[in-house]
Specification:
This protein is of the alpha/beta class. It is built from 15 helices and 26 strands.
């Protein structure tokens, strides 16, 4: 953390040099001492400090300066740093003016020139003021700050992007937090450009420039080499598991993820049935540990980066990236997972990102303190979200279309839901309509037994329904079932001879091998998979043996 600042302003160079020397000698270990020779110069420096989030503990300002008096400067400076202590330097004849200034800007102390000896005149009052300031001081957030509107879909998207990539950030709502408007004015930007990201060095980027943001955050999007033994598309639990085992066994491994490592699992607040973690761990923790483990073994991870096409150039497999670059490999693994299905009811599309959300990032939960939340879904993700958000929300209503959430939700979660007084589970109930002007205000729910409807208040709706495989980009390349899940091994369609249709090799496909030799599939995107984190990780480990067998046959 940067040391707090003592800021000195005086147009007399000799006076400025003298007090700067004295304060650095006495307070230099705990504070930085900065100075300026005019009010205009000082205000310019303060704007830069504010953008960088650096704290100013104390102003020591000369009253009689040309163009801008000390009081006039403090009036403007305190708009940026209202909590700073203020000391006015005056000549003996200006004491009356100093006293009047107390009522204008609330100065904390005034000093007459000269201040000799400083040990008796200067240091004691400043020491008391700084002790008071330190007692009330809360260190500023040292990371990315995001300025935006609460109900803006673009703002939600950038917050989600940062959360999923485990980038710490501070959210500043332009509508409720004065600091947000102040910062926006200081960079000279209009609210039409929101969301804006401010970086610790005082620079900023508009969220629309995602490429620049990605580069600025140090996220890797370009491969180091043109060819790999194994390329994995998708960094959910299955893809991460494969990356760990592939790299640890000596395969040059590249992992490509279009959003953030962890997949849907990264949004889980607490996975309590994962082997080896009796107290549970969050999806974000699991992803972070897996990424570190894969990298330690030498796996290369590109995120965010998207694979948009694959093709055969025997004996190689080629992946085209969203930026047009291509990377080749011996073996290719598809582990793109699934996404939540869209809910087709009135009002949903118009309010998506403005109170209606698919999935839920755990870091957003504190923003819903004291509010009423609706969660749609009956799987583990919905149950985990309900448990986590219940720590903050006034009420959680979980809508389950079926007669019993235990059909698709782990028993431990069903039991936990019953322990929270602010969670209500409504079975045989569905969301019928989302209502609001510019943002969600209420919803209409329907009882499937009686057909009756009811309008209830809702500050947010989080949707966790169904599974839509992320295969739209490759269905023409690989055999998929009618729902888009990739077929492999024993599930591949057979011809009249009992052989996989169109299979070019004498051997049968490996269990996780698709309709194209050398292209494998694991995890939720695979037809017949079990939608559990542990199963996905296991498949990721198992498929590496099959990759080795394939490579031996080349």
């Amino acid at each position: 953390m940067a040391r707090p600042i003592l800021f000195l302003v005086d147009d007399d160079p000799d006076v400025l040099q003298s007090i700067t020397r004295d304060l650095r000698r006495e307070f230099g270990e705990r504070f930085r001492v900065l100075s300026a020779g005019s009010g205009d110069e000082a205000l310019g420096a303060l704007r830069e400090l504010k953008l960088r989030g650096e704290p100013v503990a104390l102003f020591v300002v000369d009253q009689r300066m040309p163009r801008m008096t000390g009081v006039e400067f403090l009036e403007r400076a305190l708009e940026m740093y209202p909590g700073s202590k203020r000391v006015l330097l005056t000549a003996y004849a200006e004491i009356d003016a100093a006293i009047r200034a107390i009522n204008v800007v609330g100065i904390d102390y005034y000093l007459t020139k000269p201040w000799d000896p400083p040990e008796e005149v200067l240091y004691p009052p400043l020491r008391d003021l700084l002790d008071d300031w330190l007692a009330a001081y809360r260190p500023p957030f040292e990371g990315v700050r995001v300025i935006g509107h609460r109900w803006s879909p673009a703002c939600y998207d950038i917050k989600r992007f940062l959360s999923l990539n485990q980038v710490p950030y501070q959210w500043l709502n332009i509508e409720t937090e004065p600091e947000a408007q102040t910062l926006l004015e200081q960079v000279g930007l209009e609210s039409t450009l929101l969301p804006i990201l401010l970086f610790p060095d005082g620079t900023w980027l508009a969220a629309s420039d995602q490429g620049a943001i990605t580069e600025r955050l140090g996220l890797r999007t370009q491969p180091e080499r043109p060819f790999y033994d194994l390329v994995i598309v998708g960094a959910g639990p299955a893809g991460l598991g494969a990356a760990v085992y592939g790299a640890s066994e000596g395969l040059h491994t590249l992992l490509i993820e279009k959003a953030a490592p962890g997949g849907q699992a990264v949004t889980s607040a607490r996975i309590e049935n994962y082997l080896g973690f009796p107290v549970g761990l969050s999806g974000a923790d699991l992803a972070r540990r897996a990424v570190a483990q894969a990298r330690r073994f030498g796996a290369e991870i590109l995120s965010p980066q998207e694979a948009v096409q694959i093709r055969r150039e025997d004996p190689y497999r080629v992946v085209t990236l969203a930026d047009g670059r291509e990377v080749s490999c011996h073996a290719l693994l598809i582990a793109t997972g699934v996404d939540y299905c869209r809910l087709e009811v009135p009002g949903i599309d118009a309010l998506t990102g403005a109170g209606v959300y698919y999935g839920a990032t755990m870091s957003e939960a504190p923003a819903y303190k004291g509010q009423d939340i609706l969660i749609v879904g009956a799987g583990n993700s919905a149950g985990q979200a309900a448990m986590h958000y219940s720590k903050y929300a006034r009420s959680i209503t979980l809508l389950v279309r079926g007669p019993n959430p235990g059909r698709s939700m782990s028993r431990y979660l069903v039991d936990q839901l019953k322990t929270r007084d602010n969670i209500t589970v409504r079975v045989q109930t569905q969301l019928a309509e989302a209502c609001g002007d510019g943002h969600l205000e209420s919803v209409v729910i329907e009882d499937l037994d009686s057909g009756t409807t009811q309008r209830i208040r809702a500050d947010a709706v989080f949707i966790f329904i169904g599974a839509r495989p992320q295969t739209q980009w490759l269905q023409e390349s690989l055999e998929c079932n009618e729902h888009g899940f990739i077929l492999c091994g024993p599930y591949l369609p057979r011809d009249s001879r009992g052989r996989p249709r169109g299979w070019p090799l004498d051997r049968d496909p490996h269990i996780f091998e698709t309709s194209v030799p050398g292209i494998f599939v694991v995890g939720d995107v695979r037809h017949g998979s079990v939608k559990r984190v542990a199963t996905a990780v296991g498949e990721g480990a198992m498929v590496i043996q099959m990759v080795h067998q394939y490579l031996e046959g080349l």
